[in-house]
Amino acid sequence: MSEGIPSTGQVVVITGCSSGIGRALAFEFRRRGYRTFATARRLESVKDLSEQGFEAVNLDVGESSSIKKGISTVIERAGRIDYLVNNAGFNPFGPTVEVPIEQIRLLFETNVIGPIAIIQEVFRYMAHQGSGRIVNIGSAAGLLPNPFGGPYSASKAALHLLSEVLRIECAPFGIDVVVVQPGSVRSNIAAAGSIGIDRYQSQSSHYRAVYPQILRRANASQLNPMAAEEFAEKLVQEITKKEAPRVIRLGAGADFIAEMAKRPGPELERIFAQQFELDSLRK
Prior knowledge:
This protein is of the alpha/beta class. The protein has one domain (11-273): 3-Layer(aba) Sandwich (Rossmann fold), CATH 3.40.50.720. It contains ten helices and seven strands. A seven-stranded parallel β-sheet has the order 3-2-1-4-5-6-7, sandwiched between helices.
């Protein structure tokens, strides 16, 4: 805890703190007096946080042993967990029929299976103490069927629904569940998700003629995004309320995407076909 900041006495665990939203959330929680455990798949990626006084913990959401060890470390040091923020995520952009299946498996392991595994590990501690709040970072993209981001959108839609179910199942134990559906927030998601994206401009890709549109989709979330620090400040303000909202939408375009998702399917298909020049692929 930083000097001069009164402690709330509450403990927060955040996944995916190496950059972007996770890192900004770690700083914001600590600024408000929460004992903050910043976790990451590679401990060296949060080494600087350790040097700034954070309690950095190695936790790979894709490895059961790493999850158990990471959560055990938090319990050994702090004795409890009041907030779990599932933030770690992965997004390989591209046409669903050509995204390498290994990447899709990794995506669902990271974005869906990982959060469930961490929740299962944390649940017993929260249930024992009779309180806790689980915050799952979904995405506004999980509300809308958008081309070249299909697997990611599907994984976030799954996390949204799982959060609704968890809210019902965990309530008897004093545990609350909040799902966050961010719009555009400054992060490295575009850069990370664009690794290998040039495969779609090769002669073997059926989508090579619209490669510029695939690239545009990959970078869409980083066009006029909300600053991660502003996002974190507003989000922590909401999720630490005594009665937190069930669903929180923040970030550039989040509400617009939610409204757009209400349009009829055929209308959305026409809009996206035109926007991404998909009709040019017709033979």
